Amino acid sequence: MKKKATGLIWFVLLIALDQITKILAKTNLEGSSGYDLIKGVFQFFYHENRGMAFGMLQDRIWLFVVFTLIILIGIAFVYIKLPETKHYQPVHWILIFLAAGAVGNCIDRVFRNYVVDFLYFELIDFPIFNVADCYVTVSCVLLILLFLFYYKDEDLNFLSKKKDQTIS
């Protein structure tokens, strides 16, 4: 139970980090032409995203909030049932980052009606993103890699209703 409480603290800290970076971006970059970190490669550039990934589904805030709540319920369900063993520690962290990213962007949508984006890879003209997007993207990639190469089918037995299962 102690690990789960620590996870909650990290969850709050990660959301705070995301929100602080967005406030800094809005305060320092809004209305400017951006700030080159590496000229022609990477810059801080203020952008208001009213959609989701790559600007899809513009101005559908209620849809994003409902989707976020469903995702968070799923994450919470798995997180609560997840055994507190070293074997599952990577999943604990991934779920914390994934949930923090979802909540970070949801906060923007609810209180601003848009998500503040400010990280821009100019070299490849990649869509502008933010810290919460990094949490979500990296978490999803790591989760896929873990379940492809590290965990086995039986490692998911903790999700079943049976109480007499053995967990390594």
Layout: helices, strands, pairs:
Elements: H1 2-29, E1 35-38, E2 42-49, H2 61-81, H3 89-112, E3 115-121, H4 131-149
Antiparallel strand pairs: 1-2, 2-3
Helix pairs in contact: 1-3, 2-3, 3-4
Condensed summary:
With 168 residues, the chain is mostly helical. The chain has a domain at 2-39 and 82-158.
Describe the structure.
This protein has a domain at 2-39 and 82-158. The chain contains four helices and three strands; from the N terminus they run H-E-E-H-H-E-H. It has helices spanning 2-29, 61-81, 89-112, 131-149; strands at residues 35-38, 42-49, 115-121. The protein has a three-stranded antiparallel β-sheet. Strand 1 (35-38) and strand 2 form a beta hairpin. Helix 1 packs across helix 3 and helix 3 (89-112) runs antiparallel to helix 4. It is elongated, with a radius of gyration of 18 Å.
Name a few traits of the molecule.
single chain; 168 residues; mainly alpha; three-stranded antiparallel β-sheet; elongated
